[in-house]
Amino acid sequence: MSDFPKAIDYFQQALVVSREIKRQDVESNILNNIGNLYYNSLNDNQKAIDYWQQSLEIAKSIKKCDYQAINLEYIGNAYNYKVKKYQESLNYYQQALLVARELKDKKIESRLLSHLGNAYKSLEDKPKALEYFQQFAKNNLEINQLNCQSIELYSLGIRNLKNRGLETSSLANLGYLYRKSGQYQQAINWLIKPVEAELKQNKVQNLVFSLDRATRYIPISALFDGKKYVVENYTVSTILSASLTDTKDRLPPGIQNTLVLGMGLSEAVPGFRALLNVPSELDTIVKQKPTDTKGIYPGEKFLNKAFDFPALRNNLRGHKILHMATHGVFLPGSRDDSFLMLGTGEKLTIPQIETLQDLADVHLVVLSACQTGLGEKGQDGVEINGVGFYFIKKGAKAVLASLWSVNDSSTSQLMQQFYSNLASNTQPTKVQALRQAQLSLLHGENSTRFSHPYYWAPFILIGNGL
After folding, report:
1. Closest CA to 208 of 27, 430, 389, 438
2. Phi then psi dihedrals of residue 400, to 5 deg
3. Strand boundaries in 192-256, DSSP class E
4. 328 membership: H or E segment, kind and range
5. Would you place residue 158 in the very low, low, confident or very high pLDDT band (cuts 50, 70, 90)?
6. Mean pLDDT of all residues in 60-77
7. Check: CATH 1.10.3470 for 255-463?
8. Which residue, among 314, 311, 313, 282, has the nearest Cα to 299 in the 3D structure?
9. Do residues 230 and 261 touch, judged by C-beta distance below 8 A?
10. Which residue from 181, 275, 364, 428 lies 20 to 30 Å from 297 (Cα-Cα)?
11. Which is more confident, 328 or 371?
C-alpha cells in the first residue's frame, strides 16, 4: 500500500535542499510533483492547485516556459474536471495555450485545445466547443497524429451542437479529416491491406466487421485509400457476435412474400424537429392496397398518432420488415436512456422493446431518420450497437441504423433506393442493396448534392447481411 504522507515528507525534504542550493528549476519541479500527488492520489484539489501555483510563479520568475505551460494546464484541469469551475479553467487554459504556441509545442497545444473544447461543452457553448475540437483535430493532422481520440472528440462536439447548419458544415469538415488523415488511411492498411491480395485472388466482395470500442464510430464504408472509398470496392456489414448472427435465413423471393410494417413520425414533437419527408418515404416503400399507385412492398402503414405502442406490438406478426422512420436517441448507461420516438410523442424504451413477442417473425428492422446521440467523454461506442442488440436478441435477423443524425431528404432518397434494390429481380442481399443505394448517392443523378459521406456513410447494417 502506498505511503503518501511519507512520500510528501521526502518531497518536502527535497524542497528544502533545492532551496539551499538555490536551484529554482528543481524547486519548481518538486512543487509540481507534490501538487500531482495531492491531485491524483489524495484527491485534495485545493492543495494541488496551491502547489501548482507556487511552481508556476517560480517558473515565471526564471522564464521556464515549459514548466509554465504544464502548471497552467494542470490548474486548468483541476478547475475543469474536478472543481467544475469552468470559467476559471478557461483562463488558465488560454494562458497555457499562448505559452505552448510560443514554445511551438504542438503536443501540448493539442491537449489544451481538447481541454478547451471540453470546458466549453460543459458550459453548453456548443459552437465554441466545436471550434476548439476542430482546431484540435486539425492540429493533430499537422503533426500526423490524427487518431480515434481526435475524431471521437471532434465527432462528439458535432453531435452535441443541436444546430443543423453548424452540424452539416462540421460533418463536411469531419469528412475532410477522414479523407486526409494518415491514421484513417492507416486503418485501411490495418484492416484490408494485409489480406488485400487474398481478397482479390478469391474475388471477395463482402466484408463483415466485428468492431470494438471507439472503432464503432468509424463509418467503414467511407474509409478512403486515396483513390476510392471502401464502399466502392466491397459491401460492408457488422456483427454483434457470432452467437447472435443468424445467417441461415434470407428474405423470401418475390415481393408479394415480403410484408412491410411501416411506422413513421413526421410531425415535430418536443425536443425533435419535423421529418417532412417521412410520409412520402412510407408511401414509396409500402403498398397498403393492391390499387395503390405507389409503394414497393405490400404491407401496412401507421403515421404519427396512429403509430403508438399497441399498433407496433399488435402488428409485427407476419411482417418480414419493420421500417421505423422516426427519431431515436441511443445513449450508453442505463437502458432507459435510449429510446425511439413513437408517433404520439411518447418514448419507445428498451424495456418495451424487450416485451415485443413477435420480433422473431421480422427479418429486418430499419431505423430510418434516427439520431444517434453520443454521451459524455470516455464512452466506448457501445450505444451504437445498443438498440440493435435488443431487436436482434428478441429475434430480428438484422438492423439497419445510422451512426449520426442524418439529413431528412437524402435519407428518404437512400431508403427508397434501398428498397427498390432489395425488390429487384436479381434478388440482391441486404448489404448489396444498401451498397447500391449508397453508391447511387455518391455517383448518381444527385451526386453533386448528396455525394459527401455525411449523407450516405452513417448507414450500417448490423447482423445478417444476406
Report:
1. 430
2. -105, 115
3. 206-209, 235-238
4. strand 328-329
5. very low
6. 95
7. no
8. 282
9. no
10. 275
11. 328
Q: Say what the pTM is.
A: 0.63
By the 8 A CB rule, do 404 and 171 touch?
Answer: yes
Hey, what CATH class is 4-180 in? mainly alpha
The contacts of residue 53 (CB under 8 Å, 6+ apart) are: 71, 75
Rounded to an integer, what distance in angstroms lies between the CA atom of residue 136 and that of residue 108? 11
Q: Which three cell numbers stand for residue 247?
A: 445467417
Residue 291 has φ and ψ, to the nearest 5°, of -85, -5
Angle between helical axes of 65-77 and 45-61 (0-180°, round to 10): 160
Please state, in angstroms and rounded to a whole number, the distance separating the CA atoms of residues 283 and 261. Answer: 12
Residue 139's Cα: distance from chain center in Å? 21
Say how many residues make up the chain: 466
**Cα–Cα dist 325/415, whole Å:** 10
Q: Is 379 left (phi over 0), alpha (psi -120 to 50) or beta?
A: beta
pLDDT in tens, 406-429: 778 888 899 999 999 999 988 899
Residues of the chain by 3-state class (helix, strand, coil), percent to 5 = 55, 10, 35
CA gyration radius, the chain: 27
Task: Report whether 12 contacts 28 (CB < 8 A).
Answer: no
Stretch(es) of the chain classified as CATH 3.40.50: 255-463
Residue with cell string 409485427: 316
- Count Cβ atoms below 10 Å from residue 142 Cβ, excluding itself: 11
The type of residue at 10 is Y
